[in-house]
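STRUCTURE:
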């Protein structure tokens, strides 16, 4: 179940995915299978080969792509989520959802936001 995003944000993410861009959206989330994870980042792209190639650089496997509706995506959780968001310059999502704090990490002030 998703929390903490606006309809407009979800629409914008979906539009980017449909346009075959690599698109990021983070939201609060609860799944009893992952009790230590309170957020998830969905990285989507309608072009599955492009998405798989993008994920390969982070060790993500093509078979991990969720192929739901018209919005194929990877789900990023935990420290992998933070690592990839940092590498992709998605600091606004890290800050908005207090990901450093939620993982007991100190904010890396040496990076530009």
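SEQUENCE:
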């Amino acid at each position: 179940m998703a929390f903490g995003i606006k309809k407009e944000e979800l629409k914008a993410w979906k539009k980017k995915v449909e346009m075959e861009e690599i698109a990021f959206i983070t939201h609060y989330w609860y799944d009893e299978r992952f009790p230590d994870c309170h957020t998830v980042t969905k990285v989507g792209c309608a072009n599955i080969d492009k998405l798989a190639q993008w994920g390969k650089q982070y060790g993500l496997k093509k078979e991990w792509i969720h192929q739901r509706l018209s919005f194929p995506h990877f789900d990023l959780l935990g420290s992998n989520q933070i690592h990839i968001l940092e590498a992709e310059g998605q600091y606004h999502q890290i800050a908005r959802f207090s990901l450093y704090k939620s993982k007991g990490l100190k904010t890396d002030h040496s990076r530009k936001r």
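REMARK: The chain is about 35% helix and 15% strand.
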